[in-house]
Amino acid sequence: MSTTRALLLALLTTAALVSGCGSPAPAAPAPAATTTATAPPPGEVAVSGDVHAPRTWSRADLAALPQTTVSVRYGSGKGPQEHTLSGVPLVRLLPPEALATTDAKNDLLSFGVLAVGADGYRALVSYGEVSPDFGNRGLLVALTEDGKPLDQPRLAVPGDVKGGRYVSDLVELRVARIGD
User: Fold this and answer.
1) Residue 76, Cα to own-chain centre: how many angstroms?
2) Radius of gyration of the chain from its Cα atoms, rounded to whole angstroms
3) 149: which residues sit within 8 A by CB, 6+ positions away?
4) Are 139 and 156 in contact (CB under 8 A)?
5) Helix, strand, or coil here: 140?
6) Which of 44, 143, 147, 164 has an alpha carbon 20 to 30 Å from 116's alpha carbon atom?
7) Bridge partner list, 108
8) Is the distance from CB of 117 to CB of 171 less than 8 angstroms?
9) Residues 6+ apart with CB under 8 A from 94
10) Concatenated DSSP letters for 28-81?
11) CA–CA distance, 40 with 49 (Å, rounded to integer)
12) Closest CA to 167 of 128, 98, 116
């Protein structure tokens, strides 16, 4: 290889490295935290995020609230599921006045609720689905299934065709304003 070609190749390689070509790919962003800094004990559900008063609901707290029973049907990886669930309507744990809203028109529709399971599984529902003034879908924090107590609460989303938004071993309901 001639000296001129070697010098040209060295210059092109240097220019490529300086401009970012040929450099290693940027590191992937760190995964988002899946639960609160300290996950609540089994059976408890933390409410966090864009709420006026974050709190943790114990199983006894949840059981003391008025219970609702719903029959649900949905598809899963294990085939069709049909169950009777009893528990607390999600709107009782997250009433409209609990959210950190503004005076904007229909501001409740700017919020989502991320349900987080003990294993890090997450599913998002819009607050419009929760609100009795909008979707009124009857989302439930279930404590029993087919008359038997669940080991940990489960978010249930009646009416969903598939059970992907049913979050077992529920440990957190993280409220977030979307779009700011």
Assistant:
1) 19
2) 24
3) 143
4) yes
5) strand
6) 147
7) none
8) yes
9) 47, 51, 113, 127, 130, 173, 175
10) PPPPPP-S-SSPPPTT-EEEEESBSS-EEE-HHHHHHSPPEEEEEEEEETTEEE
11) 15
12) 116
Cα(43)–Cα(31) distance, integer angstroms: 25
Q: 122, 116 in Cβ contact below 8 A?
A: yes
pLDDT in tens, 51-98: 999 999 999 999 999 999 999 999 999 999 999 999 999 999 999 999
- The encoded tokens of residue 98 equal 């609990």
C-alpha span between 158 and 108 (Å, rounded): 21
In which element (H, E) is residue 89 found?
strand 79-89
pLDDT of residue 43: 83
Amino acid at 64: A
Q: Which residue in 91, 84, 64 sits closest to 150, CA to CA? A: 84
**Spatial distance between the Cα atoms of 113 and 5, rounded to a whole number of angstroms:** 61
Query: CA 28, CA 46: separation in Å to the nearest integer?
Result: 29
Sole residue written with tokens 């080991």: 151
For the chain, the residue count is 180
Q: Assess contact for 47 and 94: CB atoms under 8 A.
A: yes
Location of structure tokens 């004990």: 41
Torsion of CA 113, 127, 160, 89, to 10 degrees: 90
